[in-house]
Specification:
Blueprint: H1 11-20, E1 26-29, H2 33-42, E2 51-54, H3 65-74, E3 83-86, H4 89-98, E4 101-105, H5 114-120, E5 123-125, H6 128-136
Parallel strand pairs: 1-2, 3-4, 4-5
Helix pairs in contact: 3-4, 4-5
Length: 137
């Protein structure tokens, strides 16, 4: 995280745009928050986040809707008022089951599930790199 993990294509620009609108941006990571902080500092995107959570904060993971419900509740809003950007099918399913709107982000590690991700997510964040990867499949 600290030295190598790159940002997903066009995500820095998307975060900046969302931040400029005044929307609240939250990270829910399966990894410890310190890992995200290290990566986000290196990528110069930490300033866009209002709050960083780890699943460990809720003693659960992204496979269950309660995680997304608990994140929303801890910040005083309803899951249906949240837009969850995710690259894993299990997280998209859990977020949707919690009542959140979901936006799929392509990641090579989930390429075998991409068709199901497309069917499950409410929207897809498409970048030129995403398009290249999809057309290779």
């Amino acid at each position: 995280y600290k030295n190598e993990i790159p940002a997903k294509p066009d995500m820095a620009e998307l975060l900046k745009k969302i931040h400029e609108t005044g929307e609240t941006i939250i990270l829910l990571s399966a990894s410890p928050v310190q890992c995200a902080v290290a990566a986000f500092k290196r990528l110069n995107i930490l300033e866009y986040f209002d709050k960083l959570f780890s699943c460990q904060d809720f003693e659960t993971d992204k496979t269950v809707p309660e995680t997304f419900i608990n994140v929303a509740a801890s910040l005083g809003f309803k899951p249906e008022d949240a837009i969850v950007y995710e690259d894993a099918l299990y997280s998209i399913r859990s977020a949707k089951a919690a009542g959140c709107k979901t936006v799929a982000i392509y990641d090579d590690f989930a390429r075998n599930e991409w068709d199901e991700i497309l069917k499950t997510a409410d929207e897809i964040f498409i970048t030129p790199d995403t398009h290249k990867n999809i057309t290779k499949m």
